[in-house]
Amino acid sequence: MVSTLMRRFGEKGGRLRLRTGMQRLLLSDDQVAGVVAFDDEGPLAVEAKSSVLATGGFQGNTSLITQYITPHADSLYLRSNPWSTGDGFLAATRAGAAATTHLNCFYGHALAAPPARFSHLEGRGRALLPSRQRNAVPLVTAPFSAVMVRAGITFTCGGLQADLDMSVLRRSLTSSTLSLIKADRDEVSLTPMANLYAAGCDLGGISTRGYLGGLATALVTRQIAGASAMYNAKYNKP
Ligand SMILES: Cc1cc2nc3c(=O)[nH]c(=O)nc-3n(C[C@H](O)[C@H](O)[C@H](O)COP(=O)(O)OP(=O)(O)OC[C@H]3O[C@@H](n4cnc5c(N)ncnc54)[C@H](O)[C@@H]3O)c2cc1C
After folding, report:
1. Which of 2, 28, 78, 219 is the most buried (most CB within 10 A)?
2. CA torsion angle for 39, 42, 43, 45 (degrees, to 10)?
3. β-strand 144-146 against 167-171: which pairing, if any?
């Protein structure tokens, strides 16, 4: 499937740049005009009428994990590719994009911690601490088996704010993300950043109330972001 997509991409005039890392947004008159990237030969400016950020979240960035999720970042296992280090999130927020709430939220799994030996225990069942929120089956009947686990992070759930076209949003004025009691949400103005879209785990707020599926989210949001970016490039004159 990937080779078919790559062939179609080339036939349509697309140029795939492998081993090239997006570093920051290229701004012109405060509008996004492409990206600055690095390849083996150094920096290069890639001008574009539309840009889509899809760098896969910030779970690979120890300092962002420490800032937003846990001071024990070094104790986490990374389940994802090691290149998703928040480049999309950082590039957009540095240019004024709004971040979602729940930057401390991530999807992951408990993974057996080496040497991962199972211990078989006798005794009476007790409540688990911290208590399980889902599948909270009581542990009542011995024998029990226990294994040491470590948290494994798959992807971060906080990220960039976007509208339904996957346009990245900017706050005109810096405002609080706490619930408002004295102003309507509408009064906090969030406006689309011209020419900038985001997809997948670079978007925040999708799996913050429960896991919605990583691949489905990436597929749906990439399709919308791609269509919006294409429409913008074709019809929105600079
Ligand atoms: C072990 C594992 C198992 C999973 N199992 C499932 C499952 O069963 N079902 C499910 O729905 N989801 C699953 N997921 C989650 C799913 O894979 C992700 O949610 C999904 O791939 C995220 O898509 P994305 O496009 O946001 O990021 P990715 O697919 O991670 O793509 C981001 C890409 O951007 C690249 N990149 C990063 N920074 C830069 C940069 N600066 N410049 C250029 N490129 C950059 C990265 O190298 C990467 O190739 C699993 C994930 C893992 C790690």
Report:
1. 78
2. -70
3. unpaired
Polymer length in residues for the chain: 238
Q: Is this structure's pTM higher than 0.85? A: yes
The residue contributing the CA closest to ligand 1 atom 15 is 214
* pLDDT for res 126: 72
Burial of 46 (0-12, 13-18, 19+ CB in 10 A): middle
Radius of gyration over alpha carbons of the chain, in Å?
A: 21
User: Residue 220: inside a domain, yes or no?
Assistant: yes
Atom of ligand 1 nearest to the CA of 37: 42
User: What pLDDT score was predicted for residue 121?
Assistant: 80
Using a 10 angstrom Cβ sphere, with 0-12 exposed, 13-18 middle and 19 or more buried, the burial of residue 90 is middle
What is residue 237's predicted lDDT score, i.e. its pLDDT?
63
91: in domain: yes
Residue ranges of the chain with pLDDT lower than 50?
A: none
Ligand 1 mean position, distance from CA 212 (Å):
14
Contact at 8 Å (CB) between 165 and 228? yes
Residue 38 belongs to domain with CATH number: 3.50.50.60
